[in-house]
Amino acid sequence: MTTVDPASPDALCFAFSGGDLLVVDGEKEKVPTFGEVKRSGLDLRLVHGLAPLEGRECVAVNLDLDVKAPAGTYLRDFRALIGSSVDLEFFLRAGRARMISDWHRNNRFCGRCATETVKSAGELAMRCPRCGAVFFPKISPAAIILIRDGDRLLLARSPGFPPGVYSALAGFVEVGEGVEETIRREIREEVGVEVGEIEYFGSQTWPFPDSLMLGFTATYTGGEIRLQEDEIEDAGWFTVDTLPTLPPRLSIARSMLDAFIREMTVKKEL
Q1: pLDDT number for residue 7
Q2: Spatial separation of the C-alpha atoms in residues 48 and 159, rounded to whole Å
Q3: Residue 122: its pLDDT value, please?
């Protein structure tokens, strides 16, 4: 990994203190420039280049956990941006910055011999100078599954969801498990039904904390809904006309649901 000090002080600076993003006062979806953050005197533990946003250079910055926001800025809970009107590309840049920040903070010391790590030249990695262990950013693959039965969808809500929100089922891929195995296991465990055909929909990075969401649709083949009560608060079958409150527009779950709604709307119009 190359730590960079951008030539341009006008680079957009996605600076994180734990799960909080440094934003401009009164502008919950605007970050300060790198020059502004650097002049504030904050201890920048890591500065790493990101892809440009609307033609502007961007950097990820890792701040101390107990940092105080400088004048003209404040620390905003990044998760709170999900339900806002924030632009998707802004969210993705900020999400990558958060994942890099978390990874750097969690790998300051070698997990094998406890020696302080150093940045590895030319790649996004931390290296132990004593035993040679290399630590790359963690990526946790997870399957998210929209169960279909004709014009019906099986949606569920977890206890941690906002009030009234239902979504597709989801679960992390376990060690030694293929994604298709994850899908059938998660469905069976969480709602007790069986599925047949599985079709890939798409993927999305999800920085809570380091997920790669792999979206699929699955065809219902049988079984009655039986809830895994420690994971699922409620579940049921819905049509386009009876849909509950849906997940935020930035999520792949919402993209999958919107695709289903469009499909059903076209069929009604034929």
Answers
A1: 54
A2: 36
A3: 82
